Input
Amino acid sequence: MRVDMRDETIYSKGPLFEDPYDSGVFPIYTSVVYGYIDQDLGLAKLDDAGRVLKYGRESNPTVRYFEKVIATIEGAEDALAFSSGMAAITNTLLLLMKPGLKVIVPYEVYSATVRFLEVLREKAGVRYQLVWPSAEAILEAVDRSTSVVFLEVLTNPTVKVIDLESLVKGIDESVVIVVDSTFTTPIMLKPLKYGVTAVVHSVTKYIAGHNDVVGGVVASSKKLASELWEYRRVLGTIMSPFEAYLAVRGLKTLHLRFKRSCENARAVAEFLEDHPKVEEVYYPGLQSSPYHDLAKKLFGGQYYGGVLSFKVKASTYQDTVAFLSRLKVIRRSPSLGATETMAVLPYKSVSAFIPEEARRKLGITENLVRLSLGLENLEDILEDLAQALS
Output
């Protein structure tokens, strides 16, 4: 199901979300408890999924409203919101784990995801395999013991593009595919239409979009969401009502913010590609990118993401750090997807978990800089990069 992000009707209150005051913005319900006597006699409040609304750790009307909006945008049957992006990932992986089976993960994923798989291996004997970020490498690694493939279609930090369509077509239906779509957002890609099992977002990033929310969400079938709800209930990882309210607010401008971020990223990538102090630029929106044609096919040719990476011509890691320290408009931060442009050095931060040999093969070296483009005036961003590179 395609949903135009400009269609304001997806934010309006439906019959499942009635407000006695008919408020223009869906209210924040902070109550921990709700009236509950007996479900069989009809003396209990049920949400639209048929679950009893009785305790805030299990369900909340504001959170449920956010979930329904996400499900609509992603074309999913249902969605569940969590206290963080990692809570969404860990709950999902815990649900999908089975004794004796393994998880396949490309090298370039969020580092905390790999760290959690290490914990599962140490504590529960779960097996996982890191592979090159491509559909071909993932398919080659799949065997009879594979239970889950977890990937980011637009990789972090060198923004390689994994051919999701080829991957789904080539993999056995018994293998669960989970896509972390934080980088791509529902604007660029709706993975469920390709047949993946579930889509995960760090709401902290583009969806909320203002560096003031920590949250996560999983969009999937009703069956998986129902099973996942039990894990969230007992693990206590539901999103807070206020975070859900802010996330809904963020969604209302997602298409505008993401468009500006992508436009800035493409312009910056073109500027850096021609700069004498830049060694290489990684961005699928560039005609020179080996992933450009694939990105155009998967993402529709309008957006290529708001994140890029580039290598400065620096002889030492300290030289790259010096470049970063000279930035004045661009913030030095390991996050992304907000209104501010942010820069980070992945080699010793977001990619430090990757073995040294693999890092270098992937292009993650001491002089690599990752940029998440915000909404500032483009000329201010370009001038800041120019003065720092000079």
Observations:
- The first helix runs from residue 61 to 74.
